[in-house]
Amino acid sequence: MADKIPVKASTQDFTSIEDICDDIVILKDRTCSLLIETGSVNFNLIKEDEQAALIAAFSGLLNSLTFPIQIAIISKKLDLSNYLGYLDDIMKTQHNALYIKHLEEYRSFVSQYSQKTTVLEKRFFIVATFSPIEEFSDLKNVFTIEKKILVEKAKIHLNPKREHLLRLIKKLGLSAKAMTTAELVKLFFLAFNPNAGTGSITHLDQYEDLLSSTTT
Any idea which of 14-18, 55-59, 208-212 has the lowest mean pLDDT? Predict the structure, then answer.
């Protein structure tokens, strides 16, 4: 019986991402997207009048839109091992017995709580998109358009959307930041390679290799 030949496929073969450049995500259908990462607020902890004001502001944001958006949330289990190690390091440098005791109790609480409860880290994003149909009439040739030209046209449409969203999100009292190429690369790399850790990605010119490093 002939030996089985291992089949290798890059992560990119299973995603819709074609490229990331100039802070723009280019999909395989030539749709271009920008991502804005926003902060969050614990709605249940604010006063009723503040809740009403927040709802009104969010309603105003939605009603002001003349283009579609997507709201995306990434949730993952939070690894507290580094934080526990940080507490251990602090205790080693302390000489106050009472302070050390409080730190030990706090560390024990955090450790036990994380074992009994799934602690999640959540990140929130707003996505605005540009479709080639907004700029190019002949969609049959959309895949032959130079990437540089496509990105330039996309930025003409996406930049005003970005500024509009940033302004209104900040009116909600939330932080908001348009993601850069480096941040987008890291976001998708870690999404497709969750066991890769949180180390920095330094060689952005080789990000295609990073995104395709997972094989099956």
Answer: 208-212
